[in-house]
Amino acid sequence: MLNALRPALTRVLTPVADALARTPVTPNAITITGTAGVVAGALWLFPTGHLFAGTMVCTGFVLADLLDGLLARVKGTTGAWGAFLDSTLDRIGDAAVFAGITIWLVRTRQDALAWVALFCLVAGMMVSYAKARAEGLGIPCNVGVAERTERLLITLVAIGLTGLGVPYVLVIGLWALAVLSVVTFGQRVTVVRRGAAAGPVPPVLAGNPGRDHGGEPDDPPAVMNTGAP
User: Fold this and answer.
1) CA-based nearest residue to 181, from 94, 81, 84, 85
2) What are the residue ranges of helices labelled H in the chain?
3) Which of 90, 94, 218, 219 is catalytic?
4) Cα separations in angstroms, 88 against 83, 105, 150
5) What is the 3-state secondary structure (H, E, C) of 115-157?
6) 218 an active-site residue?
7) Predicted TM-score (pTM) of this structure
């Protein structure tokens, strides 16, 4: 849903990528640093109740992580390894955000909401995996009301506002995210079902129906890190 904003965001970040291209900084270094920042902010600040500060730290590193794909294209260092690394570390960052807020919910005796947060984590992973598996089978799957960008936005806004003392926003945000994640997963399963019925499975996969073909990130190429080391 927010993909329409990516061209504008790309225009804003391209000058930064151009400047970084004149330094020894690599796309993969940005990817790793961004993930490390998100993990540190989420697992250090959220469990200790510093929700707004944690949100600001995570948001800053998430935005910085958007530079990796742009930098890779400017430097001409695109490659499969960078795409794989970006996708994998995105999942780690997402898990850290939900793990951090779940720990805080448990520590503050909000056990029911902690279960909702865990459900959101699992549902988000399933949404991303559904797309990865579909694209591994050669079926386009760029659909869904709540892709990774929307899920992160809902989560971080809800956590940040809770840190500022706004009541009920985390409850509303997490429940809304749970519902939207289920809807998105259903949309992707439906698209893959129709795509599979419309044409044969590629020959390279026909003899390996059980093989796992994951790895594509839940982000479009405009912000995907494809930088080789």
Assistant:
1) 94
2) 6-20, 27-45, 51-65, 67-75, 80-107, 111-136, 148-163, 169-198, 203-206
3) 90
4) 9, 26, 18
5) HHHHHHHHHHHHHHHHHHHHHHCCCCCCCCCCCHHHHHHHHHH
6) no
7) 0.81
Domains and CATH numbers, the chain: 26-198 (1.20.120.1760)
> Who's near 218: CB < 8 A, 6+ residues apart?
90, 127, 128, 131, 147, 148
Instruction: For residue 227, give the 3-state DSSP assignment.
Output: strand
Tell me the two tokens of residue 126: 């399933």
Give, in order, the Cα–Cα distances in Å from 50 to each of 127, 159, 164, 220, 226: 29, 10, 10, 32, 34
**Ramachandran area for residue 166 (φ above 0: left; ψ -120 to 50: alpha; else beta):** beta
Pairwise CA distance, residues 13 & 70, whole Å: 8
Query: For residue range 82-135, what is the model confidence (pLDDT) as tens digits?
Result: 888 888 999 999 999 999 999 999 999 999 999 999 999 999 999 999 999 998
What are the phi and psi torsion angles at 124 (to 5°)?
A: -65, -40
How many angstroms separate the CA atoms of 67 and 148, rounded?
17
Query: What pLDDT band is residue 223 in, cutting at 50, 70 and 90?
Result: very low
